[in-house]
């Protein structure tokens, strides 16, 4: 499908708008995929994301040094042949630590989404589909959750559970489901009035079957968009937590932690802070561009 | 309109009460106590000392009673003594630091609105041309980069490479620039993206075609007809945005050494400073709710189609 990109695809958006006349049977997802591939920024973002994932998976083979091994003869070295990105206050290689840092970021970004979807989607589905009292109660609850300063709540949960990767999943999951629940609810509200849902009910489908087989598949688009944007948000939250010092336990490296620990020495040892910052920036931008592409691909009217 | 305002104001009470209760419960459910020694690994205080301290702070009473006392006092603006800054009350500390954060936030929001709307207009007018991509990319940069990453980049660029501004402090107006810009870039990106999509939608509407058909020049069409209508949805963003930016950011304030209230959002948690936790959560919540109310009311004034 990637090869079918026409030569006229000079303008990203023009390409995104043109509904590809195709002889094959087309469905929403295949059309969206085609539109996504035509969006250059999204493709660049997506490829970077895949590269980052590969770095995270194969960190053990790529990293030139160990991320924990101190070398007190070589502390605070600036970038050189031996240490491409310099060394930190314990003489550890910054590049190696950043490579392992990718692992934390990717794990948090993807892992937290699983929890968020598992909490948010059912709540949104039930609230939207049942309506009435249940809906009122759940939306009120969601409103209260919205009123909390998000980061503060995450920190509160983190100090309750203690630092560590698993607890970051839980903290982000427990606070992050609100948005996706809202989206799902809004979508379900309009879908449940459609004829095909009524038809399913008329044919005797029960609550569970109607919701999972008929309502949920049609409500999937905003959920997918929400998840793609949730990934960078989770990565950001982990970086912020580790910056503060309540995220990842040292000596496991995390980009946010590296920036947070070394931000005071920015003037003297800029390399300790700038390289992890660039890594965070590239990751966040790639995911955002990719997410933008996915949204535009799924909802071409928006462009 | 009046009944609507009163209704909304009344809704504030249960919302804030619920927030207070949840925060209170989670806070007390968190392991670790304010009576633990401050230094890590230090010996715990003697049981008598702990008992006396608990009594002095009212921590020995049952939870529901503590909550009741807290509610009663906070209604009179008394949030109690800080557990971390033992000689000062929470209100004293916040009266000093909140205005600084508010001021910084107001500057940031002003930059964000001015820059965001401009970028949004440019992007919409030059839709799908190179200007559009420049503006959208800039906006995406602002939206997706965390504060502290932006702060690092700005310091490296404008303090080290081109020494224009100091790396931190809060004495002269020159110190205000970098923290305000750092804080502004996120909201700026959001406003720009929102303005763009809203403008694009309005440009396609019938009344704009009419305005063009009667021979109006491009500039008045864009500035008078499109912009006025396109900015209405943008206004909704400003409420939560100002609440987030105006209560101070831990990251921006700690990196640029701004003596605002942002740091208490983190310090109070890590230091188990119960009165401070309650105070900052409630200030944020009340501020957010109030801003949302103001925005909704302003909405009714700007857009005559909306009636309450």
Q: Which structural traits does this protein have?
A:
A: 303 residues; mainly alpha; 13 helices; elongated; B: 308 residues
Could you give a quick summary of the protein structure above?
The complex is a heterodimer of chains A (303) and B (308). With 303 residues, chain A is mostly helical.
Taken as a percent bin, the fraction of beta residues of chain B is under 5%
Mean pLDDT of chain B: 84
- The class by helix and strand makeup of chain B works out as mainly alpha
Global Rg of chain B: 24 Å
Give the low-confidence spans of chain B. none
Structural class of chain A: mainly alpha
Oligomer: heterodimer
The major β-sheet of chain A equals:
none
Calculate the terminal CA-CA distance of chain A, rounded to whole Å: 22 Å
**Shape call of chain B:** flat
- Helix amount of chain A: over 70%
Topology (elements, then pairings):
The complex is a heterodimer of chains A (303) and B (308).
Chain A: H1 12-17, H2 28-38, H3 40-57, H4 59-62, H5 94-130, H6 132-147, H7 150-161, H8 165-191, H9 195-202, H10 207-218, H11 220-244, H12 255-262, H13 270-298
Helix pairs in contact in A: 2-13, 3-5, 3-13, 5-6, 5-8, 5-11, 6-8, 7-8, 8-11, 9-10, 11-12, 11-13, 12-13
Chain B: H1 2-29, H2 47-57, H3 63-75, H4 90-125, H5 130-144, H6 147-161, H7 173-203, H8 206-213, H9 218-246, H10 250-255, H11 264-270, H12 274-302
Helix pairs in contact in B: 1-12, 4-5, 4-7, 4-9, 5-7, 6-7, 7-9, 9-12, 11-12
